[in-house]
Design brief:
Pfam families: GCV_T, GCV_T_C
Organism: Kocuria coralli
Number of strands: 19
Number of helices: 9
Enzyme class: transferase
Radius of gyration: 21 Å
Subunit structure: The glycine cleavage system is composed of four proteins: P, T, L and H.
Family: Belongs to the GcvT family.
Structural class: alpha+beta
Strand content: 25-35%
CATH superfamily of the largest domain: Probable tRNA modification gtpase trme, domain 1
Helix content: 10-25%
């Protein structure tokens, strides 16, 4: 059972059956690992892994002005998303800091699904609701509904992901799986427990591998998530599928150079500092929250830049460690670990702009011992297409 202050997911009983070690993450009682972090990591790179992502938020944004509203609320141009497609964007404050990074799916002309990070869901939901009325008094004709408690989310990631999905969907859905492109969403039917289970299937991912996210309604069917997990687990056994926890998810996203809110993103970190300036639609949108501040940051240049650091050893640079140049502090590590795939330590760090060029030799203070690292292009790892 989860502690009193941690929220269980619809799959907590499944994780307990599988012998998971748990941790509180963003107020949720989540599996950290089932056995070996490294083994779970490698399974995703070489075969497939299954993750419980039910801690992620699901916010429905509907109505005739849903697209225009999201254009105002987020930094990207969400109204340009085609039906059935998705877009990565940022929810920023007036100063340009990142409240959350999130993915938005357009399920119909006036129906969007916004997926914020677990710990940030309350703040993201509050900001979205507040922004239904603009600073000039315009009120958008839009309805915002928190569907987090009614939705379970399971991810299957890795080279074997598509084959596993094809083994569990009904024949009429097989073509939809195969034709689903990256950053897209569709409806499929999964054969589970002798019946049919409607699923919204997305193809995005946070691991650097091909993979799918399966949204299932647990409001009308409280056991839907367990049924879905079990059919995926059974079909995946022939493809090397293993259950994976948050530890493997973190090392996988680090290798892929993907930011984690609270590390590479926060309300004190702007998109240009984090290398995400490309998602800010300054050229195509005249009005959105944070636009004025973000335009100024782009014009003046950020005071620090996020870079990738690589070492020739496995000695990890952990979050908070100081980055040095000729013994002088020039930055700070935000994420770091030995890379199971590459065999050496990698890290993400904010450094002064003059030290952000690829190839720059720097040191990281590893508990009082400077250790050499070099700036490298991100991502650290990229799968073969």
């Amino acid at each position: 059972m989860s502690p009193q202050n941690s929220r269980p997911t619809p799959l907590t009983d499944v994780h307990e059956r599988l012998g998971a070690s748990f941790t509180d993450f963003g107020g949720w009682w989540m599996p950290l690992r089932y056995g070996s972090d490294v083994a779970e990591h490698r399974a995703v790179r070489e075969a497939a892994g299954i993750f419980d992502l039910s801690h992620m938020g699901e916010v429905s944004v509907t109505g005739p002005e849903a697209g225009a509203f999201l254009d105002y609320a987020l930094v990207g141009r969400l109204s340009a998303i085609e039906v059935g497609k998705a877009k990565y964007s940022l929810l920023c404050n007036e100063s340009g800091g990142v409240i959350d990074d999130l993915i938005t799916y357009r399920r119909a002309e006036d129906d969007f699904l916004v997926v914020p990070n677990a710990a940030n869901t309350p703040a993201a939901l509050a900001a979205l609701r507040e922004r239904t009325t603009t600073a000039t008094g315009r009120v958008f004709d839009v309805t915002i509904a928190d569907r987090t408690a009614a939705t379970a989310l399971i991810a299957v990631q890795g080279p074997g992901a598509e084959a596993i999905l094809l083994d569990v969907v009904d024949p009429e859905s097989a073509e939809a799986v195969s034709r689903l492109r990256y950053y897209a969403i569709t409806d499929v039917v999964v054969r589970a427990g002798g019946g049919e289970l409607p699923v919204q299937l997305a193809r995005t991912g946070y691991t650097g591998e091909d993979g799918f996210e399966l949204f299932v309604d647990v409001d009308s069917d409280p056991h839907a998530a367990e049924r879905l997990w079990e059919v995926l687990e059974e079909a995946g056994s022939a493809h090397g599928l293993v259950p994976c926890g948050l530890a493997a998810r973190d090392s996988l996203r680090l290798e892929a150079g993907m930011p984690l809110h609270g590390h590479e993103l926060s309300e004190q970190i702007d998109p240009f500092s984090a290398g995400l300036g490309g998602v800010v639609a300054l050229k195509t949108k005249e009005s959105f929250v944070g636009r004025e501040a973000l335009a100024a940051i782009k014009e003046n240049g950020p005071a620090r830049r996020l870079v990738g650091l690589a070492s020739d050893t496995k000695r990890a640079a952990r979050p908070g460690y100081t980055v040095l140049h000729d013994g002088t502090p020039v930055g700070e590590v935000t994420s770091g670990a030995p890379s199971p795939t590459l065999g050496h330590a990698v890290a993400l760090a904010f450094v002064a702009p003059e030290h952000a060029e690829a190839g720059t030799e720097l040191d990281v203070d590893l508990r009082g011992r400077p250790s050499p690292f070099r700036v490298v292009q991100l991502p650290f790892y990229q799968r073969e297409r």
